[in-house]
Write a structure and sequence with these properties.
heterodimer; A: mainly alpha; 81% helix; disordered N terminus; B: mainly alpha; globular
Chain lengths: 228, 189
């Protein structure tokens, strides 16, 4: 029904460099699909976001996606909604944020209503449990592949590698809450950046000093020549 | 009035949920009990339901509780309540970030945050694998001592196949998930 309609309307949009005809609908539908396959925690969204939002649609850059994930994690609230709001807002303002958010929550909303209305509460169903086990295993692999790709693209300096490995150890091994790692990253980033900037400006000042020294020497030489 | 209750209760849950996922269930249970709206049996139904439905647990809970206590209007009220804090807070933060985007402070902060996020995503592989691939914590000595029974064989195979399909054959995430869902239903069901 509405699914097929939106699919048909989206087809012409698949061509690259074609302006979106129905940006809100497109946002809603892409986030509907993302919400439908958010199984095994909020991080299951990332491979899909990377594929659709960054690669297929080119809506965001890799950097912007990482910023989105970091802020969504660090802020209170539901991660899926946080990131849908961020991406929607970036693409189409507040209304875009609304379209993305509605899209991402709609699958769970509809499925819960359908299940409770027609099945009562759900008991153990071995097929569904099996399917979810399979999907969670896939999510594991998907996140791994995504993080390898991201690492290849984003981690270029020693400083970046140290932060990434440190964050992995802190969160994944020592069980530190993600917010603290993100805040620490922010502080270290600010320090590193101001250090780099001051080093750059020091170099510039040095070069300038060299220039003026050369200039003075040249002037002095000229004067001497004139004196002769 | 029940709608006001539902809205406030889930607004509070939405506002104070950090970290997401199953970590939120105690908070949800406590808040719902404070309002005297949920029995332990209902709660275990909710947990079971959240395990086998996609989407954020907070949204699942809001839809479920709202529907049970006040029908369709209730479920809409509760779901809007749980989403609103995230939505509004994010808009405010983005406004702030966009305004100070050119400042050295914000730019520097993100220079540090981006690599951290890569590490964060990597660590989520550990957490997801602990719910499906292995029995117990991934990084422990059991990994070597208890050997094969420590691993869930079929999920591990599906995990390896996923990596090949996505890493080598560039298959799209949703297709892989559908495929592995079917494989899981057949092999683990």
């Amino acid at each position: 029904m509405s699914k097929m309609e939106s699919q048909e309307q989206l087809k012409p949009l698949q061509k690259k460099n074609n302006p979106e005809k129905h940006p809100y609908l497109s946002l809603f539908w892409e986030f509907f699909k993302i919400g439908l396959f958010t199984i095994g925690g909020g991080m299951a969204m990332i491979p899909q976001i990377q594929q659709v939002v960054v690669k297929d649609k080119g809506w965001l850059s890799e950097e912007d996606m990482l910023d989105c994930i970091a802020v969504s994690q660090a802020m209170p609230g539901v991660i899926a909604i946080n990131s849908a709001t961020w991406i929607g807002k970036r693409i189409k303002g507040v209304r875009g944020a609304l379209a993305g958010t509605l899209g991402v929550i709609m699958p769970s909303f509809l499925i819960i209503i359908l299940v409770v209305t027609f099945l009562g509460a759900i008991g153990e169903n071995r097929w569904i449990n099996g399917a979810f086990t399979g999907i969670k295993a896939a999510v594991c692999g998907l996140i791994l592949v995504t993080v390898v790709r991201l690492g290849k693209q984003m981690l270029k300096s020693v400083f970046q590698w140290i932060l990434a490995i440190g964050a992995f150890l802190a969160i994944g091994v020592f069980g530190i809450t993600a917010i603290w790692a993100i805040l620490a990253g922010a502080v270290l980033g600010i320090l590193y950046n101001s250090f780099q900037l001051s080093r750059a400006s020091a170099k510039e000042a040095e070069q300038e000093a060299d220039c003026t020294a050369d200039h003075e020497r040249a002037e002095a030489a000229e004067k001497q020549e004139v004196g002769k | 009035m029940i709608f006001v209750y539902l809205f406030t209760m889930f607004f509070r849950i939405g506002l104070f949920s950090f970290g997401g996922g199953l970590a939120m269930l105690p908070l949800i249970f406590q808040s719902v009990q404070d309002f005297g709206m949920m029995s332990a049996a209902d709660f275990s139904d909710l947990v079971a339901l959240s395990q086998v439905t996609p989407g954020p647990i907070a949204v699942n809970a809001a839809t479920f509780v709202g529907l049970n206590y006040a029908g369709l209007p209730g479920t809409v009220t509760a779901t809007v309540g749980v989403c609103l804090p995230s939505f509004l807070l994010m808009l405010i933060v983005m406004k702030f970030i966009e305004r100070f985007n050119d400042s050295k402070g914000i730019q520097g902060a993100f220079i540090g945050i981006r690599p951290i996020t890569v590490g964060l995503i990597a660590s989520s592989v550990v957490f997801v694998s602990e719910t499906v691939l292995i029995n117990g914590p991934l990084i422990s000595t059991k990994l070597f001592s208890s050997g094969a029974e420590y691993f869930n064989l079929i999920p591990c195979i599906l995990f390896a196949v996923t990596i090949i399909l996505v890493g080598v054959f560039k298959m799209r995430p949703i297709r892989v998930m559908i495929l592995m869902g079917i494989a899981g239903a057949v092999l683990c069901g």
